[in-house]
């Protein structure tokens, strides 16, 4: 997979202003690294800082890339919807400022695929300038839409 050719809008169902991933740095079937530039116009801008809800949403979208990859690789036309089914653990150490870039790394812990949905448990860390901002463990449900 040529990372420079990945169209984020084909990998994730989100659209601006709710799209919280700009670039995929690396990806395979069990892990992904992404980047996101936090614009001042972000809906999660809270007095010049990127709010906690934005960090969790960014983590969830980063995690979703792992599941989305299998559909992207197969050029699937199946429409998907995904959502956080549980936030098992989240620790926020610091909020990043707007007009800065954050980097996230996610690792698949477990995945169960049924006929029309997938359940995933994924760990994710968000950092900026090599300083960890967030660590979390999320459960996601990705479901086909008919």
UniProtKB/TrEMBL annotation:
What is the name of this protein? Answer: ABC transporter permease
Which SUPFAM superfamilies does the UniProt record give? Thioesterase/thiol ester dehydrase-isomerase
Q: Pfam families recorded for this chain?
A: ApeP-like (PF22817)
Q: Which Gene3D superfamilies match?
A: Hotdog Thioesterase
Species of origin reads Neotamlana sargassicola
InterPro entries, sorted: ApeP-like_dehydratase, HotDog_dom_sf
Q: Would you say which domain of life the source belongs to? A: Bacteria
């Amino acid at each position: 997979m040529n990372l420079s050719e990945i169209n984020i809008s084909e990998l994730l169902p989100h659209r601006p202003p709710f799209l919280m991933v700009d670039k995929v740095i690396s990806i395979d079937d069990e892990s992904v690294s992404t980047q996101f530039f936090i614009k001042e116009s972000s809906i999660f801008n809270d007095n010049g800082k990127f709010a906690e809800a934005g960090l969790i949403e960014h983590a969830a979208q980063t995690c979703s890339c792992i599941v989305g990859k299998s559909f992207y690789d197969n050029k699937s036309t199946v429409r998907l919807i995904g959502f956080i089914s549980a936030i098992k653990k989240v620790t926020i150490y610091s909020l990043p400022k707007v007009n800065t870039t954050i980097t996230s790394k996610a690792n698949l812990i477990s995945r169960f695929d049924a006929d029309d949905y997938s359940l995933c448990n994924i760990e994710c860390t968000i950092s900026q300038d090599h300083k960890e901002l967030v660590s979390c463990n999320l459960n996601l449900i990705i479901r086909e839409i008919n």
